[in-house]
UniProtKB/TrEMBL annotation:
Top-level taxon of origin: Bacteria
Gene Ontology terms describing biological process: cellular response to osmotic stress
Organism from which the protein derives: Antarcticibacterium arcticum
PANTHER family: MINICONDUCTANCE MECHANOSENSITIVE CHANNEL YBDG
Transmembrane segments: 30-51, 82-100, 112-130, 151-169, 175-194
Name listed for the protein in its UniProt record: Mechanosensitive ion channel
MF terms in GO: mechanosensitive monoatomic ion channel activity
């Protein structure tokens, strides 16, 4: 590039001219140095401006015409800007020995600064390429739920460590190999300094290999107050956007060290589980009389069941000559059993309940609060707001239906209940 251009002649021309004009040799030398450095700085700034003005804009115009987004991310990560600095560096590196030929200390200092700057520039270029790769992979469907940030951060840390080793080598004059060997002696201290980074790296690999958490998973981590979607997995932390749009950061290592709840199974399943119990007062459970049975047959959802079931019971009782003067003899229907059948029929008829998944209405062991009647089913719509609406709609109806079966729900007595009881006792 500069083969036919003699920098040595140009750099010394002014100095010789000043001496010919009768100026002191030392003053002429330093004045020539100042003018040459100023000219070089102006030339470097001009070249840098031209590169930014034309080369970078041309690169951006080129990326706008291409279909791939990789080059768009290159522009955003300042890759063209860093690459464009190579030309000014080459200019300084080539011209400095001629400009500073009579100033060896300054030449050594400039060479040292330029070598360090070249190392930093190489690191910046690598970092730009790595960030571009990270952002590009995040746009690909197969990599969206992978902890790419963790791997990129590890590579960037490694690049910085190697770069710092080269910088120290330049400053001390030792070779990189000897510096690396001496660094091995301080490995215990380094392990202590980078403990969290190492733990995070190991954790991010285990999270990825074992598929524990993906970006987009909904997790609940009570220890850290996290309850929402994972938006980012990097080397040190996992970022969670909670249901109220707040953010929680969790140490990556905690994902393998502590227990948390991942709702991915629910999100990937055909439906979302509804599991809740209502408590029935035990003293309200009884055998159903014939009069009450006829009244219950007016409920269309269970009318066919009651007719069929009662025929079986009557046939059994008459065949075995059961004395029905006492209801406990033989086979009978209970209001709780009919209620359970009604709830089951109601769930099978409900349009929001998934019919191909479990629908169970069952008793649990009696408690001091009464008999738990547990309803287990799955809603078709898994979205949280719709799920809550469906659950509320189902239990609104079930709770309102309880009195029609001459059953009572358990509820701890309030102050009004106690006052009414005391008033009743006083009247008696």
């Amino acid at each position: 590039m500069f083969e036919n251009f003699n920098f040595k002649t140009v750099s010394c021309y002014l100095e010789e001219y000043f001496i010919e004009q009768g100026m002191n040799v030392l003053v002429a030398s330093y004045l020539n140095l100042f003018i040459n450095i100023t000219a070089l700085v102006l030339l470097v700034l001009a070249i840098n401006f031209l590169i930014r003005r034309f080369v970078i804009e041309a690169f951006q115009a080129f990326t706008n015409k291409t279909k791939t987004t990789f080059d768009d991310f290159l522009v955003k990560s300042k890759f063209p800007k860093y690459v464009g600095q190579i030309v000014p560096i080459l200019l300084i590196n080539y011209s400095a020995p001629y400009i500073l030929i009579n100033h060896p200390f300054l030449l050594k200092t400039v060479n040292l600064i330029m070598h360090i700057y070249v190392i930093l520039l190489v690191i910046w270029i690598f970092r730009s390429l790595l960030r571009t790769t990270k952002n590009y992979l995040k746009t690909q469907e197969e990599y969206r739920d992978k902890p790419i940030d963790s791997y990129i951060q590890v590579v960037i840390i490694f690049v910085w460590i190697v770069g710092i080793m080269f910088i120290i080598s330049e400053l001390t004059g030792q070779s990189v190999v000897s510096f690396a060997i001496s660094l091995g002696a301080a490995s215990a201290i380094l392990l202590l300094i980078f403990k969290d980074t190492i733990l995070g790296f190991v954790a991010s690999i285990q999270v990825s290999v074992n598929d524990i958490v993906r970006i987009g998973d909904w997790i609940t981590f009570s220890k850290f107050g996290a309850d929402g979607s994972v938006t980012e997995i990097n080397l040190a932390t996992v970022r969670v956007q909670n249901w109220d749009n707040t953010y929680t950061t969790i140490p990556t290592y905690s994902l393998i060290a502590d227990s948390f709840q991942n709702w991915r199974g629910m999100q990937e399943s055909p439906g979302r589980r509804i599991k809740r119990a209502i408590f029935i007062k035990q003293n309200s459970v009884k055998f159903v009389s014939s009069v009450e049975l006829e009244e219950l047959k007016k409920i269309s959802l269970i009318a066919p069941y009651l007719n069929h079931r009662q025929k079986e019971i009557d046939k059994f009782n008459s065949g075995n000559q059961v004395n029905k003067d006492i209801p406990i003899n033989g086979r009978n229907q209970t209001n709780l059993g009919i209620f359970r059948k009604y709830v089951d029929a109601y769930l099978h008829e409900h349009s929001a309940v998934h019919k191909e998944m479990y629908i169970i209405v069952r008793h649990l062991a009696p408690t001091p609060q009464g008999i738990p009647v547990e309803i287990l089913c799955f809603s078709r719509d898994k979205r949280w707001e719709n799920f809550e609406y469906i659950s509320a709609d189902i239990f609104d109806h079930i709770i309102a239906a309880v009195p029609y079966f001459h059953l009572q729900l358990f509820e701890a007595p309030s102050g009004d209940d106690i006052r009414m009881y005391l008033k009743t006792e006083q009247k008696d």
